[in-house]
Design brief:
By secondary structure, this protein is mostly helical. It has helices at about 5-10, 25-40, 45-70, 80-105, 110-130, 140-150, 160-165, 170-205. It has one domain (about 5-35, about 45-205).
Length: about 210
């Protein structure tokens, strides 16, 4: 008997589970942080970051095409898309403010990581709500990655010796590099979850 709850979760949240789309941005964040960490003084030549950004856009477009060819397209409901746009815009503005506060070292923890983790928790709850799912751990690896991003906010509390000992000039670079890695893992996990589950959904449809 097919897992109806899981099938509905996959169908309603199909666009969110296209995890490979997050991989270019996670890698871009990590590489740019490493590049910035290696700079001494204000960076004047932005050629590499701009090239990486362009490569990220091309990769994203190629990945989107891959999902359309492999799994097809599912359009979200209009009202759901509208709410998603409002929420993403609001959290983006808050994240920018958190980043500015982080650069000023006003608090000892990384506010950007906290805001990012909270936004992912709310988005995960919304995924469950839209699908009518009863199991909070229906996508367990995703939950683990969200918790890890939240915990990354407290990495600066480990002390200067930790992040300087592995080559980072500031705790911001350290935390953002870790977040980039987690985003990449989160994206790969979402893709594997989708790829492994979609065949079961097709079999259920044929049955």
């Amino acid at each position: 008997m097919p897992d109806i709850e899981k099938i509905r979760f996959l169908t309603v949240n199909y666009s969110r589970l296209q995890g490979l789309k997050a991989v270019p941005w996670g890698l871009l964040m990590f590489v740019v942080v490493i590049w910035s960490n290696a700079q001494h003084g204000p960076a004047r030549d932005l050629t590499l970051p701009l090239l990486l950004l362009g490569a990220g856009v091309v990769m994203y477009a190629a990945i989107d095409g891959y999902y359309q060819r492999t799994f097809g397209r599912i359009e979200p409901a209009g009202h759901a898309l509208f709410v998603d746009v409002i929420l993403s815009t609001g959290f983006s503005a808050i994240a920018v403010g958190a980043f500015i506060l982080d650069t000023r070292s006003i608090v000892p923890v990384n506010l950007f990581a906290l805001v990012f983790a909270v936004s992912l928790v709310l988005d995960y709850y919304r995924m469950l709500h839209l699908a009518g799912a009863k199991r909070a751990a229906i996508f367990p690896v995703g939950l683990i990655c969200i918790v890890e991003i939240g915990l990354a906010a407290f990495l600066p509390l480990l002390g200067e010796g930790v992040w300087r000992g592995i080559g980072f000039r500031s705790p911001i670079f350290f935390v953002y590099a870790v977040i980039g890695i987690i985003i990449t893992v989160y994206g790969l996990a979402g893709h594997l979850y989708l790829a492994r589950s979609m065949p079961a959904e097709r079999e259920a449809d044929h049955g």
